[in-house]
Amino acid sequence: MAELQLREAIRAALVEEMDRDEDIFLMGEEVAEYNGAYKVSEGMCDRYGDRRVIDTPISECGFAGLGLGAAMDGLRPVIEFMTWNFAFVAFDQIINNAAKIRYMSGGQFSFPIVFRGPNGAAGQLAATHNTSVESIYSCFPGLKVISISNPDDAKGLLKSAIRDNDPVVFLESEFMYGMRGEVSDADDYIIPIGKARIAREGDAVTIIGHNKSYWRAMEAAEMLTSDGYEAEVIDPRTIRPFDWDTVITSVKKTNRCVIVDESNPFASLSSEIAFQIQSRSFDDLDAPVQRVTSKDTPAPYAKNLVEYYLPSAEDVYRACREVMYLD
Amino acid sequence: MAVKTKRAAATNGQTDVSFDIIETKSTFRSYPGDRFTHSDLGLSVADIGDIYRNMLLQRRFEERSAQMYGRQKIGGFLHLYIGQEAISTGSVYALQPGLDSVITAYRDHGIALAIGMSSNECMAELFGRVDGCSKGKGGSMHFFSKEKRMFGGHGIVGAHIPLAAGIAFAHKYRNDRGVVFCYLGDGAVWQGSFHEALNLASLYKLPVVYVIENNEYAMGTAVDRAAAETDLFKQGISYAMPGSLVDGMDVFSVCQAMRDHAALAREGQPSLVEVRTYRYRGHSMSDPGKYRTKEELEQKKNEDPILRLKSYIIENDLMKVEELDVLDIEVKAEVSASVTFADESPLSPLEAIYDDVYTQTDFPFLTK
To answer: In A, residues 68-87, which contact B (CB 8 Å cutoff)?
Structure first.
């Protein structure tokens, strides 16, 4: 095992795959000469040259579409968005072209492409720079959506995403790029898409959290341990396709569930998970499924409001105690 | 583009300040009608017959489509290509089959047939049948053929323009000398995707020719009601792209222009071609066409690209009227057969609704 920063783990996946397959290229704003806005692609332009690591103008619709055209003809682009907030001007390309052309062409053209970049809250940047997009992209059949919480998953899942023949939305986090963690140094380390990870076993309550929310779930689980209860924490890792089996098996054991998700709550990922749980394990539930999400507002700027806006470990802890009828 | 500056005196008020004027001078090429002969293009009499047949097939196919739409055999939107056939045919005779790529917007039947997709698969697609070119999943606006390197058929105005840059990127990445012809309507010029794609194509020197099929109306909005600059080819100035203005009612003018522009693309120079054309039918089948006069339509019909080629053939004694009539009979028979084929093609089984969403076939993508 090697200890890597999250950004280094992503880079390791990119480098291993680009070394292996000449058809892969990396394109985005500041990825080449600047070495990446968050230094994910540091040194990659030197390694591969500007044929395969390509700076773009600030033109998300244009370069997202360019990537899709290249994928349509068999190349395997990795398109970096400086943040997913900037991808909204490329929304038509991702939703109408990436997700639907394969279907509309009767399966003739596919899109082996990865769109990646940081997702969700990134501090006091106000509403336009703080959107969590997993619920939005997961709405669309044709896309796969991965959201990572640690360096090991980042490496194993990005390699899978790059090898996948369908378009993948890959969600990272500005807050986590510097996070260090053990990364498997197994030869050609791959984590399959669509498999959740049980991060912590327990029987008192199931807590589901991905990306930064995973860490809030883990912190809340520690707090419950102090109270004498063991929570089971599941990181779904892949949002679409979702690993329902792992979640339902856990809920059947704990009979309680709290979902942590940084998305806004209405018609969101947490809504869907709660629906599926009640549909598949109604008789096993001892309490209504609870969720902890961002507030149903745009993200604020003021520090105290940002803290209030986002799911906190304390919020998750309280929700767990609620479904356990402890208070 | 030449830039020169000269001193000029300000005339506002009493101040006597002088300033520099920056003049730009871009040059564009014009391909007017009746300028090129078939010999100029190196086309044989047999080629001329093929070109005539190629255009006529599109015309007859569209006429039958309209008829089948009236009989409710075809659903959704139906945008006919009638009047614009010189563009599809002229440019197909300028590309290298099997190597070069084409991509277009939703008025896509013409280029699909011109590049060699069969009447059968096209009509079956309109009928929503399994033998359709897109297995009945795409319909009129979404014809695709991987085999013919026809990359669609795209229903969202302007959305395919960046895709064309990407296909050109792939040609360049592989260094296979292939080029992309990307067709778009005059309305698409005002989408941001057009401008982003042209900039990227020029920045990266991608082998693509962007072809504006200016048929004078974006749905019901005349070009001069949408465009501050109505010479659409001049949009290339901002992207350091050479451009041309082409008479789209003369198949030889289109062919010559597209050959020249394909050659530019093959040398790594993307470019922009504006082809002036006219659609004789409405924007779609539901369009009563109240935004234009009957007189305008009648006058434009005198420029009909197929009648024009027919006159050229007769006047130059290349083929006899009877020979052209035989081609017409053949084409009509082909189109009639395609209607029968489409009618007899099976409907999709309902479980096929889940096919082709993902490449992965065991994918648990939906709760069924």
So the answer is: 68-75, 77
Q: Is the pLDDT of residue B364 over 60?
A: yes
Distance CA A131, CA B7 (A): 52
- CA B88, B305, B318, B117 dihedral sign is positive
Two tokens, residue A124: 């006091």
Measured between alpha carbons, how far is A110 from A165 in angstroms, rounded to an integer? 7
Q: A77 to chain B: which residues are within 8 Å by CB? A: 166
The whole-model pTM stands at 0.96
Kindly state the average pLDDT of the residues A46-57: 98
- 3 state SS of B3: strand
Contacts A–B by Cβ distance under 8 A = 155
Task: Answer yes or no: do A166 and B358 touch at CB < 8 A.
Answer: yes
Alpha carbon distance A209, A260 (integer Å): 5
CA nearest to A92 within chain B: B159
Q: Which of B283, B346, B352, B359 is CA-nearest to residue B129?
A: B346
Q: Is the pLDDT of residue A319 over 70?
A: yes
Of A73, A108, A240, the CB nearest to B167: A73
Asked whether residue B3 is assigned to any structural domain, the reply reads: no
Report helix, strand or coil for A256.
coil
Q: Is residue B306 part of a domain?
A: no
* CATH code of the domain containing B133: 3.40.50.970
Pairing assessment for the beta strands A257-261 and A231-235 based on DSSP bridges = unpaired
Structure tokens at A120: 């969700």
Which pLDDT value is given to residue B361?
Answer: 81
Interchain contact B99–A (C-beta under 8 A): no
Closest by Cα among A121, A116, A104 to A14: A116
The beta strands (E) that lie in chain B are given as 2-9, 18-25, 29-31, 101-103, 180-185, 208-214, 217-218, 221-222, 243-247, 271-276
Domain assignment present for residue B360? The answer is no
Chain-wide mean pLDDT for chain A?
97
For A111, nearest residue in chain B (alpha carbons): B359
- Report yes or no on B305 lying in a domain: no
**Distance (Å, rounded) from C-alpha A64 to C-alpha A67?**
5
Burial of A214 (0-12, 13-18, 19+ CB in 10 A): buried
Kindly report, residue by residue over A98-107, the tens digit of the pLDDT: 999 999 999 9
**Residue B9 pLDDT greater than 80, yes or no:** no
DSSP 8-state code for residue A93: I
Q: Is the domain covering A197-323 a CATH 3.40.50.920 domain?
A: yes
pLDDT tens string B183-240: 999 999 999 999 999 999 999 999 999 999 999 999 999 999 999 999 999 999 999 9
The CATH 3.40.50.970 portion of chain A extends over 2-183
Please give the Cα distance from B238 to B245 (Å, whole number).
17
CATH architecture assigned to A2-183: 3-Layer(aba) Sandwich (3.40)
Cβ neighbour number for residue A98 with a 10 Å cutoff = 29
When the pLDDT of each residue in chain B is averaged and rounded to a whole number, the result is: 94
| H-state helical runs in B141-182 | 160-174
Split at pLDDT 50, 70, 90, the class of B367 is: low
Instruction: List CB contacts (< 8 A) between A245 and chain B.
Output: none
Residues B88 and B92: their CA atoms lie apart, in Å, by 6
Whether A161 contacts chain B with CB within 8 A? no
Which amino acid, A128? T
Q: How far does the CA of residue B106 sit from the closest CA of chain A (Å)? A: 13
Read out DSSP for B54-79?
A: HHHHHHHHHHHHHHHHHTTSS-S---
Mean pLDDT throughout B262-288? 94
* Interchain contact B128–A (C-beta under 8 A): no
Q: Domain total for chain B? A: 1
Parent domain of B291: 29-300+313-341
